[in-house]
Amino acid sequence: MKPFVAVLDYGIGNLRSAQKALLLSGAEAELTDDPKVISQADGVVLPGVGHFGKCMKAVEKLKPVIAKVIEAQKPFLGICVGMQMLYKSSKEAPDVSGLNILEGEISLLDTKSDDTKKEMSSRALKLPQIQWNQITVRASHYLLEGLDKSWMYFVHSYVPPIDENCIAVSSYGKEFCAVVAKGSVVATQFHPEKSGEDGLKLIGNFVKNL
Amino acid sequence: MSDTHARIIPCLDVDAGRVVKGVNFVELRDAGDPVEMASFYNEQGADELVFLDITASSDKRRSVVELAHKTSEKLFIPFTMGGGINDLETARLILKEGADKVAINTAAVERKDLISEIASEFGSQCVVVAIDAKEVDTKEIGAEGSTKKYEVVTHGGRTPSGLDAVEWARQAQDLGAGEILLTSMDRDGTKDGYELELTSQVAGALSIPVIASGGAGNLSHLVEAVQAGATAVLVASLFHFGEFSVAEAKKYMLEQGISVRG
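The joint structure predicted for all components is written out below.
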């Protein structure tokens, strides 16, 4: 039987691509905000685009079911702001609490390079970072199998910290955390559903593990 | 290696469901089915795609929404929809159908709040403000030799707006635009190269990315636009009629020292 993935639909942006990518990877996938459906899923995807504070506000009523599926150790994939929301807080909306599943704070991309050669070749880096960028795997993980040095599509101005949970990094001025994993929870700062073949491979890795 | 990787973005002008490309927006030639062409460019390594819907009928909203729907069935790279989007509701429908960004042009000039409305609802990352600019003839006013000036034109290049392109781009950024798609009306369809002075003026004044558009006639033009400050280049005819592939363009850019996605 195909694994069933609930894509959390809380009224934010483009969810259809995530659903299509999961279907293509061999899962059943449904956009839903129904706690019953979500708690019965084999895996859960939390997408997110735009403003941290706005997303947290929109996701408010799904907080209990998110806590429940994470406690039940269901595979859980956060994408972009869906990754950022897993942390304790964000500098983008300092008064708003995150889901507090991961320690640490989301901060603005620091585009001032330490490397003067790099700085000269790249002049002032634009924000948001809107481009494909290469990821470097730091710790082997099922999600990133076959994806070291792969190119992924990023659209963001804020980033999670590089800590012990960070399993892949990328660089924009300075290195930042691109993929995080802790227990059954994984999350990507980039959009795998918009990252062509390699992005589909990552989603496929998530589905295979369900 | 540099941390910026220039994006190559094929642009498909779509009229009633078919891809067309105008020379100076007047003479149109048929170049195929939009979703098929999108997949073709995806396979060649295009970084994103832009669809500009130029359908001039009351069915317009339905045609852009339908195109977004069909495209997201098959395409797993980012794409932008533009062309006559003039309200929040149309933007909402397009994004819901799987588009990543909407490009707004004339509607943003006529009602600037549209930029902040879409940005606050769906985030700045999905708001591309498209600016069509035309060089102002400064010779007439005896300003020869001074810095070139560009005026924003709307309605597909027909209506002068009186706005200065650099000023308008800066204002669009402040209102919440995440990117500027900057087209030179003087160069569009000419193959004479991007208007580098315009690109450089606007990119230099902004902190958000600028996509250069209008005039690409060979691969060195792409390199020049990035050197002038664009973080992405929009290309149409150069690819549509098979003169070059996206892969060839990327190879050339790499040889010229511009980092691109491999």
